[in-house]
Amino acid sequence: SYVLTQPPSMSVAPGQTATINCDGDKLGSKNIHWYQQKPGQAPVLLVHDNSVRPSGIPERFSGSNSGTTATLTISRVEDGDEADYYCQVWYGRSDHVIVFGGGTKLTV
Amino acid sequence: QITLKESGPKVVKSTQTLSLTCTFSGFSLSSHGVGVGWIRQPPGKALEWLGLIYWNGEDLYNPSLKNRIIIAKDTSQDQVVLTLTDMDPVDTATYYCALILSDFVDNWGQGTLVTVSS
User: Fold this and answer.
1) Beta carbons of B46 and A42 less than 8 Å apart
2) pLDDT, tens digit, 9 for 90 and up, residues B14-35
3) Alpha-carbon gap: B29 to the closest alpha carbon of chain A (Å)
4) Residue A96 is nearest to which of B47, B49, B110, comparing CB atoms?
5) Which of A24, A26, A72, A93 has the greatest number of CB atoms lying within 10 Å of its CB?
6) Residue B54 has pLDDT above 80, yes or no
7) SS3 A101
8) E strands, A24-80, where?
């Protein structure tokens, strides 16, 4: 099965930039998607297809994907960005179709 | 407005069968390309995809659960039902149903915590 690896945690000061990585074999050849989950809440789609923001998601959230690493970048971090962030790919119909990373807890 | 809501028992006993219903609105599971999936999250742990069913009836499951899980749809009722047999305390988790578009989760239900007692 396919494995997506994320750092378990990271810390950033308000106003700074947070970069959350997600590593996987030949990840750059797949579409990566990112979700934000605040405590006690369901996840919310942040970025899909590597870099597309759904309506309502601030421009401060951006994504990229190349080689074996995908990156979620949060600019001008705010206190309200403190959450868990998950990456996800569609792997294939014959195996784990939807694969999530282990999640990164962002502390502001 | 798209909404999904999970319903079912909060507690099940070991070896019992869990049945959860996802009732949705704002989209049709008859529309080409639309799927509804189930994802769970044990307390304090990461998300785990369980399975999904498409508008055309095709169903796909996490291989680790393949012998225990069935997902069925009732398009007329705008509902999808998850059945998970032989429950174990390790299956204790918040269970989410979700709208799948293309290859990502577009919308999530609020989730329902299911506790398995031994």
Assistant:
1) no
2) 999 999 999 999 999 999 999 9
3) 19
4) B49
5) A72
6) yes
7) coil
8) 32-37, 44-47, 61-66, 69-74
